[in-house]
Structure formats: structure tokens, C-alpha cells
Task: structure prediction
Amino acid sequence: MRLVIVVLCFLIALMASLPIEAHMPGASPPPKFELEPIVVDDGGKIINITIDEIGKYHNEMAKKMKVKMLKKQGKTDEEIKAIIEKEFANATGLCPCLVISFRATLLGIKNVWGEEIPKRDDIKIISNLPTPCTCQCFQYITGNRGEFHIILPNGTEVKNMSMKNLKKIAMNINASYFCFTICRKSTGECFTADVKDDVFPEDYFVLRKKVKYGVPEKASKEEIEKFRKEWEDLRNKFLTQPDYELFEGIEKPESEGNVIGAIAVLIGCIVALAVWRYKG
Result:
């Protein structure tokens, strides 16, 4: 009986100490970026879903969860207010997992529906990634009409989508979890947005486990700082880089390649002319 109590106390303490996914304390703000909204037909009403509004939604959900944790710890209202203001200062909610999920949805809709606006109740999303921010992103996009499932890479479907359960499951994720399937229910047509493994730093998931979960041991100050930098870089990649740099099987547009080639030729001509004049 004593052993059970000790284990329960350990688990409660672990869950209370887990950092919130909505922000990375000390992280720099996102760079300037331009991401088109996800446009859906919600029962005849056209809705533009921006990544900023999903970030704000995730941020608010994370704050509520943090307040709940702090109340269980016996903190006063004044203490809770001070902690929330400090921990969420300048937080946008745009964590890497949320940004990746948004980009995957944009890519999937573009490949399945083309220029057509999808009806919200015709959208089905299957995510291999069980992080809370990813879950909230897809729930926000599909709303009450669309369909969303979390199915892990091993085929197990996650039925319990509470933040507490998702945090536990998400402890052991790696690059293979970053795979998302966007489907048109009426036709059965689907597109899988599979994130390239090499967009993740080699030690990203080892550091993530140490920093966010204290497993196998708590991260050092140097490891926390390194993870924070990698976290920022990953977020920024998915806010600014093109699809072909981020997802498997996406080809670089020919027009972009032609422009780059033309610029290279132009630069070569300018250099050659400069050399010719200098020698002349």
C-alpha cells in the first residue's frame, strides 16, 4: 500500500512539474512570416482560420491548465496571477508542433481540394502526433463538424484526448510521429504530409525529453539553452520555409528553380564582365 502511495505521489508531482507546450520560457518572438489562412465552408459560412488565432486559443487553454495545477498546489490568486504573467509573457502559442500541424493541413487541403474550398464536415484529419498543441490545432480546424483522430505510428488510436493523457504519451515521440493524413470524406481522397526527418536537429528529442520531462535526468542549464535555440529554429523553419524544404515528396516549383537559375546566370555575366573590364 505504501509503495502505491509513493508511486501516485511521484506521478502527481511529475505531472505538476511538466512545462506547458504553449511557450518556451525565454524563447525569442517568432520572425515575420506570411502564412495563408485555412479557408473552410462551415455550414455555408466561409471561415478564414489563421495560425495566430489558433496560437491564441492554444495559449488560453494552456493558461487554464496551468491555473488549475497551481490551485491544486495551494497557490493564492495573487501568486497564480504573478506566475501566469511571468511564464506567459510575450507567449504567442506558436510552438513547433502547432506550426507544423497547421502547415501540414494547408498542404493537405491544397493537394486534395486544389482551389476548391473544403466543407468543414467533409474534412477528416488523422495525426500520428499526440502532443496537446497538435491536438488543439486540429480540433480548432475541424470544429464540431469535421473529424479528427490521433493514431500513433504503431497503429494504436488514442481515445483519451485529455491534456494530461496526451502529455504522458507525448514524452517518447520522435521524428516518425510527425506524419499527418488529410482526407476528403466524400471521395475518400487523402494526402499524407510527412515531415522530413532531417529538419529536426539530431539531439532534439533527447533534449526535449530532458527539458520537458526530466527524463532520464533533469537538463542542465546548457542543455536547456541549447534546446531553446533548437525549438526556436524549428518553429521558425515551419513559419518561413517552403513546403519542399519541410515535407517528403514535395518538388520544388519549376518557376522558382528557373528564377534562381536566371539570377545565377545574371550574376555570372556580371562577374565575367567585371573581370573582362579589369583585364582590359
